[in-house]
Amino acid sequence: MDFKIAVLPGDGIGPEISEQGVNVMTAVCQRFGHSVTYEYAICGADAIERVGDPFPEETFQTCMRADAVLFSAVGDPKYDNDPAAKVRPEQGLLAMRKRLGLYANVRPVETFDCLVHKSPLKDELVREADFICIRELTGGMYFGEKYQDEDRAYDTNLYTRPEIERILRVGYDYARRRRRHLTVVDKANVLASSRLWRKVAQEMAAEYPDVTTDFMYVDNAAMRMIQEPRFFDVIVTENTFGDILTDEGSCITGSMGLLPSASTGDHTPVFEPVHGSWPQARGQNIANPLAQILCVAMLFEYFGLQEEGDLIRDAVSASLDANVRTPEIQVEGAPRFGTKEVGAWIVEYIQKA
Ligand code: IPM
Ligand code: MG
């Protein structure tokens, strides 16, 4: 294949992990005879500083020209502590989602055996938990009509049937490739929008008799996720519930720094680590590049290149087994490796494989 990749390093540790992702992408392309070119673009706080817009038009055009976007992270504490800030880095993320039509956000929740002890849950609960959260990403309260004055404020949680149907299709496609179990998470006992979700899902379930569909209220799902994470295979849910549940999901594995995600939809797909920009660690060569590197695996898999994806996953597992790890997951007494060293080790593994 002839890949054209838009690279958006963004803020904080973004540029450092981005570099490792790109190196791995290049190594895999060389190894399998694909060609690849990169076009870099600015976003987030970095883009606000330079051009006053967290997702400039030029960045959008770069994304539109590409086959895939390798995104790292946006965010800067400077904006968190300033409620009056007119533009925020996160707005760039939302603009990217909307303009690229990225309605399906796929966040795998996977455990790595050697990191299970890092989980806040007991080993026996979390070991072998393996599910994916599919979060609707361009609708609901995030994008519905908003209003705010001194005394009243609201956000509208609007969903239409086509929006619900298309995200459920993504869910069913995944379920068919996995353990054929789909859980629709909603709040149909209270919210009208959730009742529409449930109605549409019940109708669609009949089209997928080979998949077990069940329904769960979001409060119950939040509880079940820590009581019995292995219950889940594929979760489909609306934007806001998905935001909350995917944070919960990523931390129960003990390996948040290792989780990639994919956002797909109408235009170019975006591959992005689940973790944020960790501004305090910027430039220190301590950030874990594995989530970004696993984004590259998801990218290949998206294009049906399973072997390429598998090789990256093997390399990541091998690096963990060899204790080539960044400080936050390193075992006591083992040597220290930085972002660059972990990336370089994985590149070498790929070249030698
Ligand atoms: C996420 C983040 C974003 C969201 C923020 C940064 C706007 O929390 O990707 O989950 O709420 O969607
Ligand atoms: Mg979130």
General description of the model:
The protein is an alpha/beta fold and 353 residues long. The chain folds into two domains: 1-102 and 266-353, Isopropylmalate Dehydrogenase; 110-253, Isopropylmalate Dehydrogenase. Helix content is 43%, strand content 19%. The chain is built from 13 helices and twelve strands. The chain has helices at residues 14-32, 44-51, 57-65, 77-80, 89-99, 123-126, 161-177, 192-205, 218-227, 239-252, 290-302, 306-321, 339-352, and strands at residues 2-10, 35-40, 68-73, 104-110, 130-136, 146-148, 153-155, 181-186, 212-217, 234-237, 260-264, 270-273. A hairpin with a 5-residue loop joins strand 11 and strand 12 (270-273). Helix 1 (14-32) packs across helix 11 (290-302), helix 7 crosses helix 8 and helix 12 (306-321) crosses helix 13 (339-352). 47% of the residues are buried. The model has no long low-confidence stretch (mean pLDDT 96). The structure holds 3-isopropylmalic acid and magnesium ion.
How would you summarize what this structure contains?
Helix content is 43%, strand content 19%. With 353 residues, it is an alpha/beta fold. The protein folds into two domains: 1-102 and 266-353, Isopropylmalate Dehydrogenase, CATH 3.40.718; 110-253, Isopropylmalate Dehydrogenase (3-Layer(aba) Sandwich).
Mean pLDDT: 96
Provide the gyration radius in Å: 20 Å
| Low-confidence runs | none
**Main sheet overview:** 10 strands, mixed
Q: What's the CATH class label of the largest domain?
A: Alpha Beta
Order of helices and strands: EHEHHEHHEHEEEHEHEHEHEEHHH
Spell out which ligands are present: 3-isopropylmalic acid, magnesium ion
Q: What spatial order of strands do you see in the largest sheet?
A: 2-1-3-12-11-4-5-10-8-9
Query: What is the annotated CATH architecture of the largest domain?
Result: 3-Layer(aba) Sandwich
CATH topology of the largest domain: Isopropylmalate Dehydrogenase
CATH superfamily of the largest domain: Isopropylmalate Dehydrogenase
Strand percentage = 15-25%
Structural class: alpha/beta
How far is it from the N-terminal to the C-terminal residue, by CA?
20 Å
Number of domains: 2
- Describe the global form: globular
Strand tally is: 12
How helix-rich are the residues, as a percent range? 40-55%
Count of separate DSSP helical elements: 13
